[in-house]
Amino acid sequence: MALVHHPTLGLIECVRSVRARSIRLVVRGDGSLRLSYPVFANRSRAIAFAESRMEWIELTRQRLAKRQANYPTLTPQDVERLHREARQYVPEALQRLATKHGLGYTTLRISSAHTRWGSCSGRNGISISLFVMLLPEHLREFILLHELCHTRHHNHSAAFHALLNSLVEGRERELNAELRKYKIPRISD
User: Does the predicted TM-score (pTM) go above 0.70?
Assistant: First the structure.
């Protein structure tokens, strides 16, 4: 990996990868760039590819900045408050939903995950991000049901989706689309 400062595009993280089959450009949420490319390509060719995509990069950065503006930055005190709320809400709600639908889990962990709303381990331990407390209650319950369904199907197979869809009265796609409108916000120092 190398960090390259481009005069127009700014800092670019350049990664040569044996697994890459083509040049791939990613604009991260903070506007920074990651450029991965196969071993048979050289860095200058990869950077030329990024330069050819300047208009797309700028439009993507604008779209991401606009999206970020809709999500206020949280203070550490906000995070503490959300953690307290999650510790009160999530255990009761998860147990209620598990009992109602005949699904079980082994452990529950409230995390400060920024990349996902929840997860389920192979041993049926469920982890829920404290940031679910920023969501409307019906989406919180959707996330809890999603993770509970993973206790029966540890994948995203057709059987998993059929189970989840049945538990949300045929609204899985609709709820997923609504959930994609939300993002875990940044935290200030």
Answer: no
